[in-house]
Amino acid sequence: MTSLIDIAHRIRAGEVSAVQIVQQTLQTIRERNSVYNAVTRLLDERALKAAAEVDACLARGEQVGPLAGVPFGVKDLFDLEGLVTTAGSVVLKNQPPAKQDAEVVRRLCAAGAIPVATLNMDEFAYGFATENAHYGTTRNPHDTARLAGGSSGGSTAAVAAGLLPLTLGSDTNGSIRVPASLCGVWGLRPTQGLLPLQGVYPFAASLDVVGPFTSTSADLACAFEALSGQSVATDQDVSGLKIGRLDGWFAQDLAPELVASMDRLLDACADVRTVTLPEVARARAASFVITAAEGGALHLGRLRTQAMAYDPATRDRLMAGALLPAMPIVHAQRIRSWFRDVLHDTFREVDILVAPATTGVAPRLDQPTITLGGKQVSARANLGLFTQPLSLAGMPVVAAPLAPAPGKPVGLPLGVQLIAAPGKEATLLAFAQAMEKVGLLGFPCADATLNTQA
Amino acid sequence: MSEKDNTIARLEATAACLDLTIPEACLPGVVANTHLLQGYVDLICGMTLPDTCLPAYEYRP
Shortest CB distance from B55 goes to which of A320, A333, A343? Predict the structure, then answer.
């Protein structure tokens, strides 16, 4: 699968039709998805009809949108007209079909893009693994014996495997950034509140954000423009940006190859300083507690009557969250206000903060743990170590894949978070594109590196 | 009464206030997650903030 910019260009230039692109995409998914289990439903009829409309518009010489004919997929929690939104569960299967597309889906369609598939996730987005008791585990396309990460694992695996050039996911505690990092794709968690959540099944409403995944940073900028309506200047001079490398909490237990790749990235920046944020452990704890409480409250009604229909791992966490007392939840929201102000102060001194997205490469499916403080701990619960505290502050974050070390085997993907002040997505995307151009960010698609060791 | 029994009794009392019955099969998982959350609650509640630091109900970063 080539980039979405290339696909859109070839369709507009008449080199290929939108119908051909959609047919090829559907065929590729049918042939290859069983290896990854990224896709849950295909939308043949709708997709082919939309593609034919794009081709008809072009044949009449009419203007088409910037993404005309580009196929995309959505995490199973975005409404698509006529389909039941499962949110990765079976307890919603008897809900009525959605009456209209989610607003962000509508925006992509208005730009000419075509939804072709829905994508796997952790049930109700509560997890970092995309191990779903109902719809199966999504496998990492770079090594199918490893986790894809979650909860938007179907969305990242589909891009990493080259099945789709563009997908949508959601991020409450890291569900865009963790799987993007483990699968080696680009992801964007936009500024809290920037993109509408209408038609998106909630998890922890006060932390939820939606965003895109792509295989290049230029594609990510293009998708963001369509989703937000904002123009992203790609020719910004980024050489004068002040970069802060997050230390302390964000330097713990890092794999040596991750440190080396981050060193290479930051060595290319002119103005780099070290930044240590205070009380990061408490910020992460606040994010954890807010999520548990809001998620538990959302599901309490169904937990009274259908508890055993939930994925056990999700159910037990939601129940524990529903039973939390009020005081720590309110206090967590106060810490959130305080931590936001800390970040605002930090961004008076730097333009971009850089932090790892995870401690290392994707854990193995048969050993789903990571090492923290010398101990093996659950990956599902702890992969958000570096993403959860930053969710609390609501700043925009680009999840960027680090480029493989020059002269060495490609290996498995590693990722960083690029964080900026609210509304500064354009700065992040310009920096990302500059670093990708010089070969420090960006990871090859898995069809070039696939390792299917069981 | 053991610490675990205490936790279960407290959880079941809270659940009853919410008209929720915790199925027997869920109890071990709910207890484990409650202990995990309690660690985070302890961290949160150990941080003193000025009275003027308000909860982020209308959160705008």
Answer: A333
Tokens 């890291």: give the residue: A174
Indicate the pLDDT class of residue A451, thresholds 50, 70 and 90. Answer: very low
Number of domains in chain A: 1
**Chain B CB contacts of A307 below 8 Å:** 23, 26
CB pairs under 8 A between A and B: 122
Strand partners, A118: A41, A74
Closest-CA residue of B relative to A192 is: B61
Look up tokens 């049918």; give the residue. A30
CATH assignment of the domain containing A352: 3.90.1300.10
The catalytic site residues of A sit at 75, 151, 175
What is the rounded CA–CA span in Å between residue A158 and residue A183? Answer: 9
Task: Identify the CA nearest to A223 among candidates A3, A449, A410.
Answer: A3
Q: What is the pLDDT of residues B38-54, one digit of tens each?
A: 999 999 999 999 999 99
Are B55 and A316 in contact (CB < 8 Å)?
no
H or E stretch covering B45: helix B27-45
ipTM of the complex: 0.95
From residue A425, alpha-carbon distances to A161, A230, A391, B59 in Å are: 26, 10, 15, 19
Q: Looking at beta carbons, which residues of chain A come within 8 Å of B52?
A: none
State whether residue A324 sits within 8 Å of chain B by CB.
Answer: yes
What is A209-260 written as a DSSP string? EEEEEESSHHHHHHHHHHHH-----S----TT-EEEEE-GGGGTT--HHHHH
A337–B56 CB contact, under 8 Å:
yes
Mutate to test the interface with B, among A192, A197, A316 (most CBs of B within 10 A): A316
List the domain range (segments joined by +) for residue A278: 1-454
Q: Are B61 and A193 in contact (CB under 8 A)?
A: yes
What is residue B6's predicted lDDT score, i.e. its pLDDT? 87
What would the DSSP string read from start to end of A392-445?
HHT--EEEEEBPPPTTS---S--EEEEE-STT-HHHHHHHHHHHHHTTSB----
